[in-house]
């Protein structure tokens, strides 16, 4: 069912989504790690970015379309990889795939998906596939081959989860997945506690391999010709090394405040990462995006586009495929409004905008 109140911004969906979901599921989605300082700082840092609009730029025929993650996109936004969409809606990732395809928004299918990759691709269009580094290297490689077979346009390796951080909301609620939700892509992987349902943290501890390092990245690069994206990069030195290793894109992200509590806000790290890689690879921003203005901020600081996370699950929880369609429609209108008001007829023009951070004009990003 659609939300009872008019949807005028994405935050309007948070309250009805919380009301519809079990409290432990809402906390699993909404929460961060530790004292959630990074979760809060993501929002504060985005709000601190001031934009200097340009005028006399002829924005009479604006467009939001661009090329993102190797595919055509109706706006510089892709759906972030998020686990277990079936927690919030019975159709899970199937509904997400349909809505994303209809809106022209690229989808990154999570490794911890509640629906098989092939079904997700059939419902919409072939998604990118997110990977975590697994102890079972053969299982990892089978997932890569399946992605190749169905025409996935790329692989997104998440590199900031050597282990799952302590997420206090989940610990307090002793959160475990309900019986109807499971990680279908990892069913063949070993699972702890055969006599009970393991927590999400226990499951990831059993299957994720914390030994991931640069030689492993080189090995993965050798295994496939698919574009390879690294998600979870904050240090400019790591970004530069990734670019030199042939990575096609990096995603500046702190995992939505769900990993190292106290980590820098993603948007604060973005300018230095872009400066470090130059034009050697694309750069995307993840963590905290809630509006078209946030998207414009990311573009102005050097991002090619952004990943949208929690609002996708809010829309799915409130109205399924239709609710998510409303999220995409509203965000596209907000992005167009922000571009026009900033004097940018297209997303690429926003990279030349001047920004002000903490009173200092930021001009590190080369004008294009």
Automatic annotation (TrEMBL):
InterPro entries: Aldolase_TIM, Alpha-hydoxy_acid_DH_FMN, FMN-dep_DH, FMN_HAD, FMN_hydac_DH_AS. Keywords: Flavoprotein, FMN, Oxidoreductase. FMN binds at residues 81-83, 130, 158, 231, 253, 258, 286-290, 309-310. It comes from the Bacteria. Pfam families: FMN_dh (PF01070). Gene3D superfamilies: Aldolase class I. The active site is at residue 255. Glyoxylate binds at residues 132, 167, 255. This is Alpha-hydroxy-acid oxidizing protein. It comes from Streptomyces alboniger.
């Amino acid at each position: 069912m659609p939300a009872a109140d008019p949807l005028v911004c994405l935050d309007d969906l948070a309250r009805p989504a919380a009301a519809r979901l079990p409290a432990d599921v809402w906390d699993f989605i909404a929460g961060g790690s530790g004292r959630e300082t990074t979760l809060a700082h993501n929002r504060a840092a985005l709000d601190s970015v001031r934009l200097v609009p340009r005028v006399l730029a002829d924005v009479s025929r604006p467009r939001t379309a661009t090329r993102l993650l190797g595919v055509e996109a109706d706006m510089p936004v892709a759906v972030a990889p998020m686990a277990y969409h079936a927690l919030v809606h019975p159709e899970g990732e199937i509904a997400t795939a349909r809505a994303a395809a209809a809106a022209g928004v690229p989808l990154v299918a999570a490794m911890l998906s509640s629906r098989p990759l092939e079904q997700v691709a059939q419902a919409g269009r072939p998604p990118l596939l997110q990977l975590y580094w697994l102890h079972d290297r053969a299982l990892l490689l089978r997932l890569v081959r399946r992605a190749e077979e169905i025409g996935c346009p790329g692989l997104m390796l998440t590199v900031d989860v050597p282990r799952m951080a302590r997420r206090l909301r989940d610990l307090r609620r002793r959160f475990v997945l309900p019986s109807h939700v499971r990680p279908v892509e990892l069913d063949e992987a070993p699972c702890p506690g055969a006599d009970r349902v393991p927590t999400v943290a226990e499951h990831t501890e059993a299957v994720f391999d914390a030994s991931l390092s640069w030689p492993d990245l080189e090995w993965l690069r050798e295994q496939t010709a698919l574009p390879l994206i690294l998600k979870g990069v904050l240090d400019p030195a790591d970004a530069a090394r990734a670019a030199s290793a042939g990575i096609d894109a990096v995603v500046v992200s702190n995992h939505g405040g769900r990993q190292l509590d106290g980590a820098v806000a993603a948007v604060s790290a973005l300018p230095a990462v872009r400066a470090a890689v130059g034009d050697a690879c694309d750069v995307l921003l993840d963590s905290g995006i809630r509006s078209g203005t946030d998207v414009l901020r990311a573009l102005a600081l050097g991002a090619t586009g952004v990943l949208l996370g929690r609002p996708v699950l809010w829309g799915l929880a409130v109205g399924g495929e239709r609710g998510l369609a409303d999220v995409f429609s509203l965000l596209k209108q907000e992005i167009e409004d922000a571009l026009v008001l900033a004097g940018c007829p297209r997303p690429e023009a926003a990279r030349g905008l001047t920004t002000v951070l903490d009173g200092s004009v930021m001009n590190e990003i080369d004008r294009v």
